[in-house]
């Protein structure tokens, strides 16, 4: 093939490629006039090839883009390659559309073609880009809206948190203001009960004591319900004995049932878990509430407390505790509302039997927190059965009930000693305790109780005085054996005092005694450096057990071997 033939083929091949291209290509001279154009210029601009020839390339550009076009030509002069540019093209009929224009300067030996221009219709691309831009803009708007709503949500959450904080502080202060005088009322009635003087005084003291205990229970129920609703309430699941829980409930309510001539009995299956996983304090609180109601609403007959295994598998073991009575019963139409707050079966119930209607509501919520169900069956004038069903988990030890050697009675036989022997052991105990409380009546009460245990007591009215006394005692090599510390005091709080003592590396056991009752109070006390925690009001036996636990080994040994 001759060179002439090769050039002819190449020319034909190039021409065919241009004709197949969807883009419009033009050859332009130095003046900008079109010397030649591909067929696609008709599809793109509406110009026939022969009509387009001789037209200036600027006729293919929209007036709005002519200035941009002129700058683009200048950029392309002398440049081997250059970027394409997007601008607006103009059809023969005057309509405009988006194009991508690529210009290349040509080195023509005949000095005719100066530029080659390629026009590409980017209408669809622009539509897609516009849609993308719209989508991006909507995303930006959505993001701005989300930020606005997030800001509003955070503001609302901040308001809620402040409200919850205010509510928590109110509950804490209310608890402190109520529990502190209740500690004095119940504590001093216990002291008066030891020497009542005559039978009539004893009856009056018991009236004060019973009403004080009732008021304290109402306070506790209100606080517990408030804590549950605030989310400031937790249950802790530990290994505990279900039969022992029953025994403690029976011990507590046997005297009250006997006074009314009622039979209070407990039953359990021959084979029960020796230990279960649950919160023993909260389970006992629920059962105690149910038994208390049964005693209250039963005038004759019996009350039966039963625990039995419903089902068991490798993963789950289901226990059911039930409290059955022969009391007044509940009308069928009232049963569905029985767990609602401040609800009682009849409007006359509170007048005849007392109560606020909070107990069952609290019990229902507590059982739910324990992961179980509380149900009731009742018939008017025939009695009621309340059932607590709990999944106690798989980590339990099965043992025959008879093998436990556990008997139900109304006597507290935890130590095997008589009350006189226990009291004698308490009096023979030794140790010096620092009692810190800002209320004179509480200091006097606890001093009496601690003296009764045979302990020497020093007192302070605030944390600052306590720290000073502790440091002075340490310097004299007469360190205190134990500190009982109220946590909310003027001048220096118990939290600040304990933190200061721990910073001074003074490791004397500190028992926090607080009238606050929120879940976080115990953790707050322990975080501050306290050894343990008691909530007011404190019963003598509970205080004695706590003091015995943390006194030095010599005192405990003497107590156990005297």
Automatic annotation (TrEMBL):
Broadest EC class assigned to this enzyme: transferase
Lineage: Bacteria, Pseudomonadati, Planctomycetota, Planctomycetia, Planctomycetales
SUPFAM superfamilies the record matches: ATPase domain of HSP90 chaperone/DNA topoisomerase II/histidine kinase, CheY-like, Homodimeric domain of signal transducing histidine kinase, PYP-like sensor domain (PAS domain)
EC number: 2.7.13.3
Highest rank taxon of the organism: Bacteria
Domain Histidine kinase: 173-394
GO CC, any one term: membrane
Catalysed reaction equations from the record: ATP + protein L-histidine = ADP + protein N-phospho-L-histidine
Residue ranges annotated for the PAC domain, each copy included: 83-134
GO biological process: regulation of DNA-templated transcription
Protein location: Membrane
PANTHER family (alphabetical): HYBRID SIGNAL TRANSDUCTION HISTIDINE KINASE J
CDD domains: HATPase_EvgS-ArcB-TorS-like (cd16922), HisKA (cd00082), PAS (cd00130), REC_hyHK_CKI1_RcsC-like (cd17546)
Alphabetized InterPro entries for the sequence: CheY-like_superfamily, HATPase_C_sf, HATPase_dom, His_kinase_dom, HisK_dim/P_dom, HisK_dim/P_sf, PAS, PAS-assoc_C
Limits of the PAS domain: 10-80
Pfam families: HATPase_c, HisKA, PAS, Response_reg
Protein name: histidine kinase
Modification type 4-aspartylphosphate: residues: 486
Entry keywords, A to Z: ATP-binding, Cell cycle, Kinase, Membrane, Nucleotide-binding, Phosphoprotein, Transferase, Two-component regulatory system
């Amino acid at each position: 093939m001759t060179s002439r033939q090769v050039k002819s083929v190449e020319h034909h091949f190039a021409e065919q490629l241009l004709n197949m291209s969807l883009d419009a290509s033009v050859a332009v001279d130095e003046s900008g006039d079109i010397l030649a154009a591909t067929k696609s210029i008709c599809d793109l601009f509406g110009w026939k090839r022969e009509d387009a020839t001789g037209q200036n390339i600027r006729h293919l550009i929209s007036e709005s883009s002519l200035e941009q076009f002129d700058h683009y030509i200048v950029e392309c002069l002398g440049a081997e390659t250059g970027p394409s540019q997007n601008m607006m093209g103009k059809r023969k009929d005057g309509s405009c559309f988006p194009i991508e224009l690529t210009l290349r300067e040509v080195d023509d030996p005949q000095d005719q073609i100066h530029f080659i221009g390629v026009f590409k219709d980017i209408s669809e691309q622009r539509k897609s880009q516009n849609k993308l831009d719209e989508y991006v803009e909507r995303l930006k708007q959505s993001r701005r809206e989300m930020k606005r709503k997030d800001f509003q949500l955070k503001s609302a959450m901040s308001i809620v948190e402040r409200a919850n904080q205010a509510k928590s502080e109110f509950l804490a202060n209310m608890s402190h203001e109520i529990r502190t005088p209740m500690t004095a009322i119940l504590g001093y009635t216990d002291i008066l009960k030891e020497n009542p003087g005559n039978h009539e005084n004893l009856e009056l003291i018991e009236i004060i004591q019973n009403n004080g205990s009732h008021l304290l229970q109402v306070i506790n129920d209100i606080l517990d319900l408030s804590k549950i609703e605030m989310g400031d309430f937790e249950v802790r699941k530990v290994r505990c004995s279900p039969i022992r829980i029953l025994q403690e409930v029976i011990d507590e309510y046997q005297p009250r049932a006997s006074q009314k001539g009622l039979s209070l009995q407990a039953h359990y299956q021959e084979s029960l878990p020796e230990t279960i996983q649950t919160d023993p304090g909260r389970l006992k609180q629920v059962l105690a509430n149910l038994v208390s109601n049964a005693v209250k609403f039963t005038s004759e007959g019996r009350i039966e407390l039963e625990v039995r295994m419903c089902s068991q598998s490798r993963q789950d073991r289901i226990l059911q505790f039930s409290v059955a009575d022969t009391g007044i019963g509940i009308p069928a139409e009232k049963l569905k509302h029985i767990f609602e707050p401040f609800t009682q079966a009849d409007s006359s119930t509170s007048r005849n039997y007392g109560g606020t209607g909070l107990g069952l509501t609290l019990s229902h919520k507590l059982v739910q927190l324990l992961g179980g169900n509380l149900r009731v069956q009742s018939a008017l004038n025939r009695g009621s059965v309340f059932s607590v069903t709990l999944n106690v988990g798989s980590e339990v030890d099965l043992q025959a009930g008879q093998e436990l050697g556990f008997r139900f009675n109304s006597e507290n036989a935890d130590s095997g000693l008589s009350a006189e022997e226990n009291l004698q052991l308490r009096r023979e105990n030794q140790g010096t305790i620092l009692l810190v409380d800002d209320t004179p009546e509480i200091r006097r009460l606890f001093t009496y109780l601690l003296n009764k245990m045979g302990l020497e007591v020093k007192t302070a009215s605030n944390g600052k005085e306590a720290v000073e006394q502790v440091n002075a005692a340490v310097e004299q090599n007469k360190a205190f054996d134990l500190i009982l510390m109220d946590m909310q005091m003027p001048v220096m709080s118990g939290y600040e005092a304990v933190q200061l003592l721990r910073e001074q590396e003074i490791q004397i056991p500190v028992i926090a005694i607080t009238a606050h009752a929120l879940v976080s109070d115990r953790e707050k006390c322990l975080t501050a450096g306290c050894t343990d925690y008691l909530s007011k009001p404190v019963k003598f036996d509970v205080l004695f057990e706590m003091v015995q636990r943390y006194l030095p080994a010599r005192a405990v040994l003497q107590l156990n071997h005297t």
